[in-house]
Amino acid sequence: MGHDHDHGSQVTNRKKLAWAFGITFTILIAEVVGAILTNSLALLIDAAHMLTDSTGLLLALTAATLIMRKPTAKRTWGFRRAEVLSATLQSSLLLAVGVYAFIDGTRRLFQPAEVAAGGLLIFGIIGLLGNIASLAILASGKDDNLNMRAAFLEVLNDALGSVAVIVSAIVITTTGWMQADSIAAMLISAMIIPRALKLLGEATHILLESTPKGLDLENVREHLEAHPLVLAVHDLHASQIATNLPILSAHIVVDDEAFHNGAAATMLGELQSCVAEHFEVSIEHSTFQIEASSHQTPEHQRHD
Fold this sequence. Notes:
The protein is mainly alpha-helical and 304 residues long. Helices cover 68% and strands 10% of the residues. It is built from 10 helices and 3 strands. It has helices at residues 2-38, 41-67, 82-110, 117-138, 146-175, 179-207, 217-225, 257-260, 263-277, 298-302; strands at residues 230-242, 245-254, 285-292. The chain has a 3-stranded mixed β-sheet with strand order 1-2-3. A hairpin with a 2-residue loop joins strand 1 (230-242) and strand 2. Helix 1 packs antiparallel against helix 4 (117-138) and helix 2 (41-67) runs parallel beside helix 6 (179-207). The longest helix has 37 residues, at 2-38.
């Protein structure tokens, strides 16, 4: 049942991403035309942002499709890590656009260009309406995995960028202050950069096979060693393949007698249930190597 539910969720998320990509790409074309007609840096930067987001959503859609492929002997986890690679590329693109927007916005503060405020307002509203539609589509799936969250954040940034474009258009129309366009571009970059860095950090954390956030390995070690048959735990490792897919492995040292009376076989299931149910991060995929105390390997001597 759990696998069927997960597969159904993946199919639903893929459809949501397809709709969001279609809407975002349409807005991109409209904003490129609008930037040319209005000579607006804010709209041009937002269009560049939309370009990266369209690319990011296409990556997310591709990753969502790959995730659904079944594991094989060559790829035992299937393409589950595709979502992490997609999120890494999306956040890198967002970061590059954010830095460019800030630098060019600063330059145009001192060299303001003439902007057609009326057209800017129209294209800003078109962009915002499209972003709201995409957000509504993606909202229910944003917590399913890192890939979906990256896509949702990109569209959210787009919506905030559209708001900045609309505000700058109103300011220029009412005051004639052309630098408002540059301020809007810099505000868009200020919204992009922190989110891009956060997402990039989360994706890198998984790619470096760091311990899953929320899991204290020392606490895990102490809990495993509290089992009455466990003498010691060494070579304890935990990492994460993808969102909601943490894995753990450890060598468990027991008394030699446990192998003779069958207790070692029983305790294996108990240890697996322990790491799956006891901790905040539930680890369904755990591997334990049971070792007799009389057989201490060189590996044990080298590691904590």
